[in-house]
Amino acid sequence: MSNGNEERLVNIESALAHVDQLTESLNETMVEQAKSIRRLTQQMDQLTDRMAAEDMKAAKDNITKPPHYS
Question: What is the reported pLDDT for 31?
Fold first, then answer.
């Protein structure tokens, strides 16, 4: 193989290694973001449920019976 072709091959292999490393890094980032989104969604669902329960309790506490019900 000529010197020019060998240098081109080395450059291509180097670029491919860089792309492989970048792809792996992006994959790891996506996995971490998916975990964070899942955790935040669960927290939001819990907070929504808690707020709904508190609103229901506040509405029930606001209801007063008429005097003739006592």
Answer: 98
